[in-house]
Amino acid sequence: MKLQISGQPVKRPISVLLFPVNFVTRQIFQRDGVTERKTEMTALPYGDVDSHLKAMAGKAEGFGRFAIGGLHGPVYSVTTLADDGPGSLREGCRKQEPLWILFEVSGTIHLSSYLSVSSYKTIDGRGRRVKLTGKGLRLKECEHIIICNLEFEGGRGHDVDGIQIKPNSRHIWIDRCSLRDYDDGLIDITRQSTDITISRCYFQQHDKTMLIGADPSHVGDRCIRVTIHHCFFDGTRQRQPRVRFGKVHLYNNYTRNWGIYAVCASVESQIYSQCNIYEAGTKKKTFEYYTEKAADREEAKSGFIRSEGDVFLNGAQPCTLTGFSEDCMFHPSEFYPVWTMEAASDSLKGVLHILTGWQPIQRPPLEQPIMV
After folding, report:
1. What's the CA angle centered on 352, arms 30 and 203, to 5 degrees?
2. Residues 190 and 161: beta-carbon distance below 8 Å
3. pTM for this entry
4. Catalytic residues, which ones?
5. Mean pLDDT of the chain
6. pLDDT exceeds 90 at position 307
7. Structure confidence by residue, pLDDT tens digits, 47-98
8. How far is the C-alpha of 140 from the C-alpha of 249, rounded, in Å?
9. Which of 153, 102, 113 shows the shortest CA–CA distance to 135?
10. For 207, left (φ over 0), alpha (ψ -120 to 50), or beta?
11. Alpha carbon distance 62, 228 (integer Å)
């Protein structure tokens, strides 16, 4: 079912997929020692991706919607927490054929070096609790990657990110991951990597959270397109995200208590911020604009942020630019027809508190259930 959202007349309609619908029960308040609870109907994405094991393939919303991961390959089982060797995650990720990688063990994998992921892989942590530490995942010149329900913590070393996507990688979906405390970024997307969705992830205890676009000399990053939705940035200091050159659609995210700014638009970037919650702590500036000169241009420029339906709490200051033409800003409907979205509200904030990051969910069955 699709609903065309319309209020004031707009040149380009926003299409929103309302189903699947989830019923969420929350504690509302206490009166005379009695807790009152309310069940609310909330529009949330991905209600069917856990129906069977490979239901996630091709189901991302946004720019990463074509990512199929290891859909057409067999299941590979991780049976050891060792950094390398038979049955390890590293051994599965280096194989050249499509694989749907599952874990038969829970625990922490200590990576001594970046773990490179080859094309057509799904790394599926559902049904187990697996944490990667020491280093992170490297998605280099690969395509069709799905990373789901993992934890990343404590990456150490120069240029060590939780998930590093560069160069020339595409069709990637990162869903329900928890990331914190790396020496560089938690997720960095640079050097002509594109068509990526990051959804339902939890970011915490970090400085430079997410960089999209390498630096002003990498003008090829004009191709970058990223969707970030239903994520919770919980006290991360800056770069939620910082963008150079690329097009980024942010919707239904919750960002709170940042240390410098929430979102930054650098050289030529276009950020469409839609129905997000920005809740300030000590620092109130929500949107920042850095002026830089692209290597193939004479004039230095910042980027653009369009804020639509966002909510600014606790004195958060939008700091939006005025006077720029709509021609400078993309609209998501130019690239994909539907996305699941609701108004920014306390209800949405409560959902994102609970349903982002690693989840203690069961592994779905291998085959799709037969309906009788």
Report:
1. 125
2. no
3. 0.88
4. 239
5. 88
6. yes
7. 999 999 999 999 999 999 999 999 999 999 999 999 999 999 999 999 999 9
8. 23
9. 113
10. alpha
11. 8
